[in-house]
Design a protein that fits this description.
Layout lengths: L12 H11 L1 E5 L4 H13 L4 E5 L5 H11 L3 E5 L4 H10 L3 E3 L5 H9 L3 E3 L1 E2 L2 H9 L4 E4 L7 H10 L4 E5 L6 H9 L4 E4 L6 H4 L1 H18 L1
Parallel strand pairs: 1-2, 1-9, 2-3, 3-4, 4-5, 6-7, 7-8, 8-9
Length: 220
């Protein structure tokens, strides 16, 4: 497992990337309503996962972002961000980082202008390079189910200044996540495998998150 690339203290990326790297697993919540999103995020947080990504597929996602960022003091990011307007709305609600499945230079530019960490999506070396040229120091490697950890290791070798958050198909188990971390991932995003408060119950979500965090600590 490689150490995170140092980021200058004056960069907005510094603190956020440190927190993501320390947690190693980022819940990616695609809840069907605001109440479920809040309850699921709080269950994750009780287990130690206080960096949370809420996707814009959640109805009225800004309500959930505001509640979690201000009342619960969680580090909330918003995913599936595809326009500068969505960046602005997310930031106004209290989001501290943005995530997308692909690359859009205008979205990256809008995030940079607001001093917000933007994690655009990429898969190929050319796509990662485009993100870097636009000013991104971290990308979402997506979809992970199409590749192997050795692929990430090759990307890290030729672009050591870039950080990678791997998302899309990784099982929520130490065996599913550990190899990506060992290959150089900053963190791994995990979605439906953690469950939701509405479907599985908040206690079960917390149990799954806690079990995963404890197992990864043992393997570290």
């Amino acid at each position: 497992m490689r150490a995170a690339v140092p980021v200058s203290s004056g960069s907005p990326n510094g603190g956020i990337l440190d927190e993501i790297a320390a947690q190693r697993v980022v819940p990616v919540l695609r809840s069907t309503d605001v109440d479920d999103a809040i309850a699921t995020a709080r269950a994750c947080a009780r287990a130690g996962m206080r960096v949370i990504e809420l996707t814009r597929s959640i109805p009225e996602v800004e309500v959930a972002v505001s509640e979690l960022a201000h009342s619960d003091e969680l580090v909330v990011g918003v995913g599936t961000v595809v326009t500068p307007d969505e960046v602005e709305k997310s930031v106004e609600a209290g989001a501290r980082f943005m995530v997308s499945f692909g690359f859009d230079s205008e979205v990256v530019k809008a995030s940079n202008a607001l001093g917000i960490t933007m994690i655009p999506g990429a898969l190929t070396p050319t796509e990662v390079a485009r993100c870097r040229q636009a000013g991104s120091s971290v990308v979402k490697l997506f979809p992970a189910r199409l590749i192997e950890p050795s692929y990430l290791r090759d990307l890290v070798a030729v672009m050591p200044e870039m950080e990678f958050m791997v998302t899309g198909g990784s099982p929520a188990t130490p065996g599913g996540i550990g190899p990506w971390l060992q290959a150089g991932a900053l963190a791994v995003g995990v979605g439906s495998a953690l469950g939701s408060a509405a479907v599985d119950g908040a206690d079960e979500v917390e149990r799954r998150c806690r079990q995963l965090m404890q197992a990864l600590t043992v393997r570290a």
